[in-house]
């Protein structure tokens, strides 16, 4: 009986109830879209970091991160590569020779990291081959081909077939260098990455620098959930002179940003539900005090005050259920559409690229987030009915019936 009566009371003033529910729906949709936008940024940062910079796991010589010297090559590399070839967890892997040097054209000179890559395995780890906007991917033909970024090409006034001079210090401590011919120009989502990297054939770089082992082994796994477990497994297997790190260890700033974004989502949600709670209290107070004489009659004919309290709380629960439910349903539809079309942010492209974020974001919200929003909104709605219920049951039946409307 209480459920039926509460439902009728909710819609006694249809306009007021509809306005309150509409405000709840608008707020829920806004909060979830904001959460989806923030999650989209983090997902994009993580995806780009793994694709372009860290992979899932990397192996270096122990002191390479402190001093990326050309002589800091991986110890016992053959044993590691043999292990990776037969590891069922590994989807793909590649090895790289990395050298810090200078790139010069007729117009300018700048510092750069030379990535000596394997032409077959590198495209299985990074999507560099599909991001060439002019020219071609490196091949075995020709002498000293090089891939430069669009940003580097603009700074040095380069185009396909332009000649550049690469210089760096070899393993003996002598300055070495050679002329390279631009084979292709690439562009990624990170302007900082583009500004700092060029790609050459590994055999060219090793021959020029007199280095015959690699500085980095990068791998991606079939299942991202296995990263920590496989990292620990590798750490026990490889030489003590090497260091195995996963992508979170390689990008600690990204890990901090993920934690900050998660905390930010929670703060936004809490602020919204608190504001919404006060709104529901206001609506219910008006509704309850309009029916003071009615509640007085109910108490006079024998209805227990506890049942009146339940009635009011059920009313607030109905409002919360409808508002939160409708808000979540609309949010699911919006997020689904935006996850397919994306949110174009062309006006902010330059700023986003500086942080390694694409100019088109795809918001994402997990089922857990939807449930968390619905549960919090509904619980606060129910709690919001406690105060109005307490105010009405404090009155005596005679006082309530004598109340003027």
Automatic annotation (TrEMBL):
Keywords: Cell membrane, Membrane, Transmembrane, Transmembrane helix
Domain annotation ABC3 transporter permease C-terminal: ranges: 267-397
One Pfam family cited in the UniProt record for this chain: MacB_PCD
Topology term for the membrane: Multi-pass membrane protein
MacB-like periplasmic core domain sequence ranges: 17-234
BP GO terms, sorted: lipoprotein localization to outer membrane
Keyword Transmembrane helix: yes
Residues that span the membrane, as ranges: 21-42, 267-289, 310-338, 370-389
One cellular component (GO) term of this entry: plasma membrane protein complex
Subcellular location: Cell membrane
Superkingdom to which the source organism belongs: Bacteria
Entry similarity comment: Belongs to the ABC-4 integral membrane protein family. LolC/E subfamily.
Name of the protein described by the UniProt record: ABC transporter permease
Organism, as annotated: Aliivibrio sifiae
